[in-house]
Structure formats: C-alpha cells, structure tokens
Amino acid sequence: MAMLRFGQHIIKSSALFLKTELSFALVNRKPVVPGRILFRFTVMTGHVHVHVLPRKAPALKKNDSIFDEKHDWESEDVPTKWRSEEEMAKEATELRSLFS
Fold this sequence. Notes:
This is HIT domain-containing protein. The chain has helices at residues 66-75, 85-99; strands spanning 4-6, 9-11, 16-19, 23-27, 37-43, 46-52. It is α+β, with helices and mostly antiparallel strands.
C-alpha cells in the first residue's frame, strides 16, 4: 500500500488496514476511545469520511456524551499526545486480518 492523503494529513501505509478502489480505512493517531477508526469513501461530489467510535458500558455515564468528549479531545491536537507509529501499525495489522 502506498501513502495516501486524508485532508491535509499524509497517511502512511502502516496505518491503513483496508483499501479498495473507492475507499480506505485507517487507525487514528489519537483515538478518543480505544478502537476508533476512520473510513474515507470517494463519491461523485468529493469524499465522505466516517468515524467509528466503539463504546462499552460503563465507559460513559451518558451514551451521547461521546460527542463532547470527542470535541474536547480533538481540540487538543498536539503531536506529544499522538500514538507512536509502532502502536498504530500494530493496531492496523490486527484489523487488517479481520478484513482480508
């Protein structure tokens, strides 16, 4: 797999776990919850991307508070809080085996 662009970000192939003709899926460098992944689909008007945020009780008192958590977490997007490339590659490898 080659490197891809996701918005202004360059995504290394080690972070990808699925790639098709019109889509790709990657692990997140700073997941708000464990297992957060992103899917990007190419459509006629550009692209759509989907965030998948697995949730398990009792992680959050209110199920919908995940949206507040996500906003707060992403507003502090600094490299010192990102996961290492090795951590991301390990997760992508595990997920890749589920999609092959």
